[in-house]
Amino acid sequence: MLTELKTDIAIDKRKYEAEMEPLMIRLQTLGRAIHEARIPVLLVLDGWEGAGKGDAINTLLARLDPRSTRVQSFFAPTEDEWMRPFLWRYWLRLPGRGQVGVFEEAWYRQLIEARVEGELSRKRFLRALDAVNSFERLLAEDGTLVVKFWLHITRREQKSRLRRWEKDPTFAFRVNRVARRQLKHYDDWLAAGEAALTHTNTPIAPWTVVEAGDRRFRRLKIVRHVCDAFERALAAKAASAPPPAPKAAAPPAPKAAPGSSGRITAGASPIDGLNLRVKLRPDKYQAEMDTLTEKIHRLGHDCYLKRLPVVVVFEGMDAAGKGGAIRRLARALDPRGYTAIPVAAPEGDEKTRHYLWRFWRHLPKAGHWAIFDRSWYGRVLVERVEGFCRPEEWGRAYGEIRDFESQILRSGAVLLKFWLHTGLKEQLRRFRERERLEHKRHKITAEDWRNREKWPQYRDAVADMLLESSTREAPWTVVEAEDKLWSRVKVMRTVAETVEAALKRADGPAGGLRL
Fold it and tell me: What are the φ and ψ backbone dihedral angles of 159, each rounded to 5 degrees?
């Protein structure tokens, strides 16, 4: 893709001006149409130092509306960014619907540099590129137009440009450590760049390699390609077909044996056969809670020392006791080391971005805990049942969620997922209790009663969710929650056992890319 590329293609000034003026008007018109159609656009520009990425960005911004266009230049990760999953800082800066995000030297530059510097083995490098492919596919399937440019120049051309910059006080700052090392190890960068482009040149997010030796040719090719991509995206949206009818329901899964641990693995029935009559005596509850609270407090401290992040997810039917379980867990932790995230309907910027965006924002840094009161599983529960997303969207979400959780785990984090389950009769008792008691009345809403009427639909959605998203690395723990004492102890015990086992496997503070 790169090694045989001719980079000295030139175009004369007269031809350039004749083509460029109408092309820029076209870019402005299409940019406005993209904004009105609420299509999110991600323009990724990468390539060699000195290849003209800044000039290309300035050319595009001359006609794109600055109110809906954001340029993001990525440098070496900060300490805060190092302590989170690799893609975290890129997720945070994604454009919303109708916005254009211009990313200069994003995930590709970081991975290629890490590969050249020996921080990534070939296996880890390719695994990271697989994660990038999944990331870009996820965005594209959600409606984002992903356009990727690699600006290519020869070693000789790069050396010439860097020398000119060094002699000019205005541009000397551009000849930094990365530029010097890139020139010195040009062949290594070329090999890593070739591998990255080949591995990530997908139909849904293809690369456009730009012969960047001549400025006029470079500008024309980039602007023309952006205009063509805008037109295709607008035509695709205008011609989009109505959503297909929902697929037939899957056959029922086999029932689990009563008395099981509640840990769900693929192929097991998640909720049928649960023994909801299990109880715990108050005296035994208090003794166990005291022991587990002290243990989790120590484990929280050890997680900080070993830089082990922990993500805990709570889901369950209304009034299943999520809040009570979260409070008991939070009391055991140092308040400086955890964040509890209540999840409601998306608002503001959350509505303009991929549904996972708001959850990436809250992933904890290494050594800290994040406790989610409801989570990304809303996509396949409430959004499915209430019709807030199309069947193909919530059907696609199972794979997106598995990939998301896989990235959390590969970054070194511990992930625990709890489904708190009660029966209809117990839910009704708790609803009436909430209406009767003044200090609990704020917990019951008209929406709770409305959701109760859709119990069969929610039950089917829960069964699918548990079966589709319970993996060996990230299993669900189903908690029999009709007795609150039992459910709280089971949650605390599972957290303690899982985190303790993870700490034994951890050698110490993790460094480098969290892949």
Answer: -60, -40
pTM: 0.90
DSSP states of 135-186 as a string? HHHHHHHTT-EEEEEEEE--HHHHHHHHHHHHH-TTTGGGS-HHHHHHHHTH
Q: DSSP state, 98?
A: T
Sign of CA pseudo-dihedral 176, 179, 182, 183: negative
Contacts of 61 (CB under 8 A, 6+ apart): 69, 71, 102
Separation between Cα atoms, residue 486 and residue 344, nearest integer Å: 27
Q: Encode 350-407 in three state secondary structure.
A: HHHCCCCHHHHCCCCCCCCEEEEECCHHHHHCHHHHCCCCCHHHHHHHHHHHHHHHHH
Whether residue 392 contacts residue 243, with contact meaning beta carbons closer than 8 Å, is answered with yes
> What is the Cα–Cα distance from 509 to 309, expressed in whole angstroms?
11
The model's confidence at residue 446, banded by pLDDT at 50, 70 and 90, is: confident
Distance CA 408, CA 7 (A): 40
Q: What is the pLDDT of residues 203-233, one digit of tens each?
A: 999 999 999 999 999 999 999 999 999 999 9
419-442: average pLDDT: 90
Tell me 205's DSSP state.
Answer: B
3-state secondary structure of 198: helix
DSSP H helices in 201-354: 215-238, 282-305, 322-331
For residue 70, count CB atoms less than 10 angstroms from its CB and return exposed for 0-12, middle for 13-18, buried for 19 or more.
Answer: middle
Question: How far apart, in whole angstroms, are the C-alpha atoms of residue 356 and residue 495?
Answer: 24
For residue 288, give Cα distances in angstroms to 256, 334, 397, 467, 488: 27, 20, 38, 31, 10
The region that residue 262 occupies, defined by phi over 0 for left and psi between -120 and 50 for alpha, beta otherwise, is left
Query: What is the full DSSP assignment across 10-56?
Result: ---HHHHHHHHHHHHHHHHHHHHHHHHTT--EEEEEEE-TTSSHHHH
In the block, residue with structure tokens 């980079």: 7
* pLDDT of 91 above 60: yes
- Report percent pLDDT > 90 for the chain: 84
